[in-house]
Amino acid sequence: xxxxxxxxxxxxxxxxxxxxxxxxxxxxxxxxxxxxxxxxxxxxxxxxxxxxxxxxxxxxxxxxxxxxxxxxxxxxxxxxxxxxxxxxxxxxxxxxxxxxxxxxxxxxxxxxxxxxxxxxxxxxxxxxxxxxxxxxxxxxxxxxxxxxxxxxxxxxxxxxxxxxxxxxxxxxxxxxxxx
Length: 179
Known about the structure:
By secondary structure, this protein is mainly beta. About 10% of the residues lie in helices and about 35% in strands. Strands 9, 10, 11, 12, 13, 14 and 15 form a 7-stranded mixed beta sheet that branches. Strands 3, 4, 5, 6, 7 and 8 form a 6-stranded mixed beta sheet that branches. It starts with a strand and ends with a strand.
């Protein structure tokens, strides 16, 4: 995490956030895990998201963050806690996917797991093969993503290779919207 930047401007001290610090889009989900395509907010994400918008959280909840941290609702001024071992009822999650369009069809690359978003399914091998040049640019340069039937597709760095079967555990998935 970057440090706050302080400066003296016309006799007044000015504080500004580091360039990478910003509020993030989030959702509140029941339980301690995020649904497919989402990942828990990092403590720094929660800090910058709720520093001036604490009232956007449900009032009395305590919410799981990444790395075992948590954040209280407005009832306790959005206080954060590191290494919170309690079992919590809610988790704050941010999107971890990218939507893209090929020929009027909506695809998604889902980061951090091989599951698809709700309303999507793994792209089948034939479709992935037909559009491999376009799809592979979304996988990540050195990425490898799961497709339907247990197959995979490589990113540009690996030459956009595609396999009908791949038994390795993969960290991302290529999905297509269910019609």
